[in-house]
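Worked example 4.2. Below are the chains of a multi-component assembly; read each line carefully before continuing.
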Amino acid sequence: MTTPLLDGISSALQRGDRDAVVALTREAIDAATPASSLLNQGLLAGMRVVGAKFRDYEMFLPDVLLAARAMTAAMELLRPLLVADGVPLAGRVVLGTVKGDLHDIGKNLVGIMLQGAGFDTVDLGVDVDPDAFAEAAVTHGATVIGMSALLTTTMIGMKDVIRALEHRGLRDRIRTVVGGAPVSQAFAVEIGADGYAADAPGAVALVRALARVSS
Amino acid sequence: MKPLAGRLRRRERLLADGAIGTMLIARGLPPGEPPERWTIERPHAVEAVARAYADAGADLLTTNTFGASPLRLRAHGLEDRLDEINNRGVQLARDASDGRAYVLASIGPTGHLLKPLGDVDAQTVLDGFRRQAAALAAAGADAICIETMTDAVEAVLAIEAVKAEAPGLPVFATMTFDLTPRGPFTVMGVDVPRACSRLQEAGADLVGANCGAGAEAMLAVAREFSRATTLPLIFQPNAGLPEHQEGRLVYPQPPAAFASQVAPLLEIATVIGGCCGTTPAHIAALRAML
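Applying the procedure described above to all two chains together yields the following structure tokens:
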């Protein structure tokens, strides 16, 4: 059920107004709004609109980044309450830009949107070694690895990550998703990745579907 | 050669060159390596690419300095060699030209988002572009090409830097657009009319677009430019979108197909050239058409 306050959080989030999102979130918490409603009908409702408008070219990268920043700030207030209420996390995802590639805007965007969708993310940063992806997935108990590459020359390294999982006998337990400007569905199939998404909202939907399968 | 500024003012058609990055990759530049490293470590390879473009008939040779701004060089541990890389980059293009072509010094984006979206402030970006522009001007570039921008604010900072450090040089400014169902937009949400007004106000002498999905998509972008500004225009499309074939990336358009798709752009453009995936053969095909 939505309320004027939750709608207010959603629209402040869509405007990327971090201060308003944080203030309204605090207000909702003080009013004893259930954490799960605050997340679903407030923050995630706003993020869904942002995601859809981004997909339809009505919003662009700056709008999404501002909304995501507001979301992240609100989640800091909300996370302890979600944990206390026993609201389950959607899953844990290891993210990184592959070896040799220093581009992280797209990867960061996916990370923030995954957090917005209730996932726990472990961001390994840029120029990540194939083995580091595999090890982090084990260490953190992640079920999905998300890899990003902007360069046509570095995307080939995604295959090495999948190979590193195979060597460890983890290929069936840990799903791999790939993205980035030069990456395509055909490329994902060719290297044996479990999925490809063309944009950040697509990546969230994909990870959600894969996390469901593996849990 | 006649001064470049006058030829641009008279809107004489000029042929720019094609890709440098994908050419160096084809010659063995390893994945993730910045092309600028080869300016100091394998200068002959860099000069050979420029020479091939001059041989193909390019009037403008782009320097291998796209990523030679401080923030980008820092990411590869090369910041302390900024002057050398920019200086040498201009020299190599000059040597390759043999008096046949102008040297168009490239300045690409920093790769960082400006605050509040990203981690760098405008002053840092401006100072960085000023260092690069000063080095390029001191080395004797004929013009500066600010290219592949997606953020109008960053593009304007780069133009301001060039105006401050190299006030006499013509400034080209191009942005990279995606052709969306709602028309061309950069990733940062800049449309063509907005790009034109910001770049023009900042003092660009030529504006236009580079990179992107190929010459066909570029035509839609170019038509918007011709409606939005009276400045002379530059377009440098890719040889199509890269396709993945047997472990490597291939740009699908061979020279003849590229040239025939570029043909309608000639009605609109003063300067025409190529971006990713184009080769000296593509530029020669354009030369044959001019």
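Take a moment to check your reading of the output against the notes. Residues 122-138 of chain B form the longest helix (17 residues). Chain B has a mean pLDDT of 95.
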